């Protein structure tokens, strides 16, 4: 259980969807921690020490012990602090939550990024198709207010990428990645999620994130 | 009421092997249904509509997909015997991290080695060996990655061995000499019945590899 003597820090970057996931989990549990902003173009000694294998953020550090990979960090947080559970307790529901979270990482995140950060029409089309296919599965899956039921759970947290970041990519790139007419239930879910009291507080301000990705996109276009 | 457990499987699959090992470790009785991946059964398509892949564990009619998710499910349900994950959250997180490393990094590097053209083979093999060495460091002096007993990371990794060994004739890899610690760990794993009975016959994997490489049109450096 967390006490005032616990040393908790999160190495991350504001604007990263993976870091955001961990911040949502921590906020849901009411856990206080130090946020250590990283510069990915110039990684700190601390990051290289705490995640020598991947050298990526987020890294959660609990009393000098590091944990990396956003979904693994969230399971750790859930197992360490019992209030406001994030994963279901029933093994089958737990397996489904893990499955859908992994699905989002495997099928949505990569393809959405590739659809956005390309000037090749064929690449764009192919990856857009992949995203649309994946979102259709999620559209069919959502039955309650959230994937977690009445309250947000692991899948909702993993899917914050879809609710907040995908629309930004869509707008900048002029893409049709998450059309609300095609995915009405998922769109409604996304609005519930970004307005959820905890998520709302944790999400980064939209304008700087938008500006950051717009700059990256424009430099890609300029270089071709 | 007795549990009904069915595993949709494919004998050469290393992913299927992971589930077989976990079920064996827990002493769980199940029915195995062999799938023909060139002609997938309606049951497979119904139980795993998203990936249409094996392994799928069907527990009292309810499907669980993705080998490492299935292994964790088995651990969660049959939590009264032979734990596959440590009990402390930090060590569980580490086990998940390294299983994820096998799932992503070993898979990626191994795929490169397996499909690399002659010119790229050396670089691919070197990167792959480096990754195995990192895992050797992780193993340290332990008997298994799970400590005294077989654990999540052991189960994730050991089924790859048959494929590594089969590849040795196609390329310039010699796992035994380049990663002796890894090799010794494999031998220890193979001494466990749950592992030896779950992994396909080495020669069969070799023959399957030859066929597959021919089908995919991959040339080999070897003899």
Biggest chain pair contact, residues each? A-B, 21 and 22 residues
Class from helix and strand fractions of chain B: alpha+beta
Strand arrangement in the largest pleated sheet of chain B? 2-1-3-4
The average pLDDT score of chain A comes to: 96
The share of residues in helices of chain A is: 55-70%
Strand percentage of chain A lies at 5-15%
| Individual helix count of chain B | 11
Q: What is the oligomer described by this structure?
A: heterodimer
Order of helices and strands of chain B: EHEHEEHHHHHHHHH
Strand order of the largest sheet of chain A: 2-1-3-4
The CATH topology of the largest domain in chain A comes to Glutathione S-transferase Yfyf (Class Pi), Chain A, domain 2
The share of residues in extended strands of chain B comes to 5-15%
Mean pLDDT of chain B comes to 94
Radius of gyration of chain B: 18 Å
**How many angstroms separate the termini of chain A?**
53 Å
Q: Can you tell me about this structure?
A:
The complex is a heterodimer of chains A (224) and B (223). Chain A folds into two domains: 8-80, Glutaredoxin, CATH 3.40.30; 91-222, Glutathione S-transferase Yfyf (Class Pi), Chain A, domain 2 (Up-down Bundle), CATH 1.20.1050. Chain A has helices at residues 17-28, 45-50, 70-80, 91-116, 121-141, 154-158, 160-173, 184-194, 197-202, 206-222; strands at 8-12, 34-37, 59-62, 65-68. In chain A, helix 1 packs antiparallel against helix 7 (160-173), helix 4 runs parallel beside helix 7 (160-173) and helix 7 (160-173) crosses helix 10. Helix content of chain A is 58%, strand content 8%. The model of chain A has no long low-confidence stretch (mean pLDDT 96). Chain A has ten helices and four strands, in the order βαβαββαααααααα. The radius of gyration of chain A is 18 Å and the shape is globular. Chain B is globular, with a radius of gyration of 18 Å. In chain B, helix 1 (14-25) packs parallel to helix 3, helix 4 (89-115) runs antiparallel to helix 5 (118-139) and helix 7 (161-167) crosses helix 11 (202-216). In chain B, strands 2-1-3-4 form a four-stranded mixed sheet, covered by helices on one side. Chain B has helices spanning 14-25, 42-47, 67-77, 89-115, 118-139, 152-157, 161-167, 175-178, 180-190, 193-196, 202-216, and strands spanning 5-9, 31-34, 56-59, 62-65. Chain B contains eleven helices and four strands; from the N terminus they run E-H-E-H-E-E-H-H-H-H-H-H-H-H-H. In chain B, a hairpin with a 2-residue loop joins strand 3 (56-59) and strand 4 (62-65). The termini of chain B are far apart. The interface between A and B is medium-sized, with 21 and 22 residues. Chain A: It is an enzyme of class 2 (transferase). Chain A: Residues 6-85 form the GST N-terminal domain.
């Amino acid at each position: 259980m967390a006490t005032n003597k616990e040393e908790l820090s999160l190495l991350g970057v504001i604007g990263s969807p993976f870091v955001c996931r961990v911040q949502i989990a921590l906020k849901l549990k009411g856990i206080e921690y130090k946020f250590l902003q990283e510069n990915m173009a110039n990684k700190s000694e601390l990051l290289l020490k705490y995640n020598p294998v991947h050298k990526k953020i987020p890294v959660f550090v609990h009393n000098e012990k590091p944990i990396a990979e956003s979904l693994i960090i969230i399971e750790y947080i859930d197992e360490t602090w019992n209030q406001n559970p994030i994963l279901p307790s029933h093994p089958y529901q737990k397996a489904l939550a893990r499955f859908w979270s992994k699905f989002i990482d495997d099928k949505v995140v990569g393809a959405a990024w590739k659809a956005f950060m390309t000037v090749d029409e064929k690449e764009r089309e192919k990856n857009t198709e992949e995203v649309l296919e994946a979102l259709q599965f999620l559209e069919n899956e959502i039955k309650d207010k959230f994937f977690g039921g009445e309250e947000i759970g692991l899948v909702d947290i993993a899917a914050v990428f879809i609710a907040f970041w995908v629309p930004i990519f869509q707008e900048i790139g002029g893409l049709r990645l998450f059309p609300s007419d095609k995915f009405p239930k998922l769109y409604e879910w996304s609005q519930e999620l970004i307005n959820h009291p905890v998520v709302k507080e944790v999400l980064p301000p939209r304008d700087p994130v938008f500006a950051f990705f717009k700059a990256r996109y424009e430099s890609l276009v300029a270089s071709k | 009421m007795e549990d009904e457990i069915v595993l949709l499987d494919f004998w050469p699959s290393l992913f299927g092997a992971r589930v077989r090992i976990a079920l064996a470790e827990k002493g769980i009785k199940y029915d195995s249904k062999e799938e023909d991946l060139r002609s997938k059964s309606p049951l497979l398509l119904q139980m795993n509509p998203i990936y249409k892949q094996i392994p799928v564990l069907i527990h009292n009619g309810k499907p669980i997909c993705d080998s490492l998710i299935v292994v964790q499910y088995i651990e969660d349900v049959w939590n009264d015997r032979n734990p596959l994950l440590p009990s402390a959250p930090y060590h569980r997180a580490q086990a998940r991290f390294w299983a994820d490393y096998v799932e992503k990094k070993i898979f990626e590097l191994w795929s490169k080695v397996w499909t690399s053209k002659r010119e790229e083979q050396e670089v691919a093999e070197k990167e792959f060996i480096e990754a195995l060495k990192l895992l050797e460091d992780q193993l340290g002096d332990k008997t298994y990655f799970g400590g005294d007993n077989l654990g999540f990371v052991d189960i994730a990794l050991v089924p790859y061995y048959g494929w590594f060994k089969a590849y040795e004739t196609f390329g310039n890899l010699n796992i035994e000499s380049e990663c002796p610690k890894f090799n010794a760990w494999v031998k220890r794993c193979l001494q466990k019945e749950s592992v030896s009975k779950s992994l396909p016959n080495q020669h069969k994997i070799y023959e399957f590899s030859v066929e597959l490489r021919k089908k995919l049109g991959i040339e080999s450096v070897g003899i």
